């Protein structure tokens, strides 16, 4: 812990986060690759450090609500997002500004998508794209 019980600025309190890789190879099928950070995977560790190759989605340097983190991860992994990103960005780097400039569904839609995802087993690209299309139409 840092001074006064605060965490050093490079650490985040353990919680649910969505992370997106900053770099992809030209030959990879996707530019945006998002993953869920589940606090249960860290055996009660009080804080997490993320390497610089990741964009971290958080709220005020704290974790996201569980369903929202799941939903945001699923949304970022839709074919629609990948195609939109490729249209406005010709490079393989995904920086925080690119992610901030994207249009996102409401928190309610992302939470609904996350609740759906948590009820599923392993997700396929087809399942993700179909569910997102039904939620947003």
Could you describe the 3D structure shown?
The protein has a three-stranded antiparallel sheet with strand order 3-2-5. A two-stranded antiparallel sheet has the order 1-4. 38% of the residues lie in helices and 14% in strands. α4 runs antiparallel to α5. The longest helix is centred in the last third of the chain and has 13 residues, at 107-119. It has five helices and five strands; from the N terminus they run βββββααααα. It has 137 residues and is of the alpha+beta class. It has helices spanning 66-76, 79-88, 96-101, 107-119, 125-136, and strands spanning 11-13, 17-21, 34-37, 47-49, 54-57. It is globular. The mean pLDDT is 89. It has one domain.
What structural class do helix, strand and pairing data support?
alpha+beta
Per the principal axes of the C-alpha atoms, what is the gross shape?
globular
Radius of gyration: 16 Å
**Biggest beta sheet summary:** 3 strands, antiparallel
Which tags fit this structure?
137 residues; alpha+beta; two-stranded antiparallel ribbon; 5 strands
Question: What can be said about this structure in brief?
Answer:
Helix content is 38%, strand content 14%. It is an alpha+beta fold. The chain has one domain.
């Amino acid at each position: 812990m840092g001074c006064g019980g605060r965490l050093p600025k490079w650490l985040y309190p353990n919680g649910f986060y969505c992370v997106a890789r900053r770099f992809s190879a030209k030959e990879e099928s996707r530019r945006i690759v998002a993953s869920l950070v589940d606090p249960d995977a860290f055996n009660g560790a009080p804080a997490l450090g993320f390497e610089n190759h990741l964009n971290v989605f958080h709220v005020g340097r704290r974790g996201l609500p569980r369903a929202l983190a799941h939903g945001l991860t699923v949304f970022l992994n839709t074919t629609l997002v990948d195609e939109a990103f490729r249209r406005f960005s010709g490079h393989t780097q995904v920086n925080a500004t690119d992610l901030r400039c994207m249009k996102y569904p409401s928190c309610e839609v992302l939470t609904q998508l996350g609740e759906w995802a948590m009820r599923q087993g392993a997700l396929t690209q087809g399942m993700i794209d179909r569910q997102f299309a039904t939620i947003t139409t």
